[in-house]
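Task: complex structure prediction.
Instruction: return structure tokens for all chains below.
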Amino acid sequence: MAKTQAVSFQLNGKKIETAVEPRELLIHTLRERLLHTGPHIGCETSHCGACTVDVDGMSLKSCTVLSVQCEGADMLTVEGLEQGGVLHAIQQAFHEEHGLQCGFCTPGMMTRTYRLLKENPNPSEQDIRYGIAGNLCRCTGYQNIVKAVQSAARKLAATATA
Amino acid sequence: MITVPFDYHAPRSVPEALKLLTTFGDDAKLLAGGHSLLPMMKLRFAQPAHLIDLGKITDLRGITQVGNEIRIGAMTTEYDLLNSRLLADKVPLLVEGAGLIADPQVRYKGTIGGDISHGDPGNDHPALMLALDASFVLQGPKGERVVKADGYFLGMYATLLEPGEILTQIRVPVPAAGSGYAYQKLKRKTGDFATAATAVMLQMKGNTVAKVSIALTNVGATPLKASAAEAALVGKPISEASLNEATRLAMSICDPAPDQRGDADYKRAMCGEMTRRALQKAFERAAKA
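Output:
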């Protein structure tokens, strides 16, 4: 049995204490150990962005981060977007604008959108396309995804001023 | 894709990291942003028994100006470079370069020091560093030394960095006010390495070139300083003829490795085109006074 190392972090507001082999990738800890299967494994080579999660204010590809690097981190996965049975504005916008077809890239798209809109609440279409360039979608051609991000930005702005 | 087993170390200071590096010697690898090393470890091209993560050493991160020099901690991320007001004001070439590296997620993690130390000719910072005449601070068990970017890159994955040393800081002389700059990069898609790319710093005096620096990415085993092309431009106006000559001279030093991005002739031609565009862009941006 390989040596394990204790690691603790916040996941969607909940304190997690677990033990992992140093070589364990964050995506495997999330999916297999903590049963958070929202983040997907697409390419496992940090190209596709399906495994994107939010860690300490950064969108990260969790296939290229070791879980031991995340000691003390504050993490958000797609599971943490919805609150008390109410979809997050980003989820609502992807639903309404049909910002998906097969849905495989969607959790990564939405967690990336979450950070993008935190940093830039009123992005241009160009900002959005540049900002989600690390997330591949093989179905939609991105048109409806861009519309969904624009719609999410409007929804969030409306909530902020309400 | 799982790496071989290793022990993970997260030192909190540079001396602590140096001590670990001395203890484990060749069995150890330094982990910066991890977006080159971890993929290599997953493919088992790299199999260190000890991984020393520099990510918790806060001293290694940050951008400051000291006198006429910008000092950048080696663990400063591409995201930090891209969003630095100080760099936007003083060294916009680095901001332009950082924005063309990888994708947003990778830029949150990827570091300038890792990009430089890795010694991959496909990385962008090496040529940017040559164009900016940067220096690197290398700390080792016997103290620190400062080396020039020009001469640092020895070959594929080979640099002046000795085993037991850590690149801790990048020092960039603030370019003269009114300098033009450009980084032109041809890539097949977001996230790909450059098919060819060129970094240019340019100072004009009236109508003629006072000083120019040209460096090439991914068209040889190391980044290349296009010295002959620079010499051909100095003292002359920027014209169709002078650009043609500089482009020809830049292409003449290219020795690109053919791969799925193209054969050697294509890459050489693209290096020429990137060089022409970078010079034109830098000229547009340079003060003409």
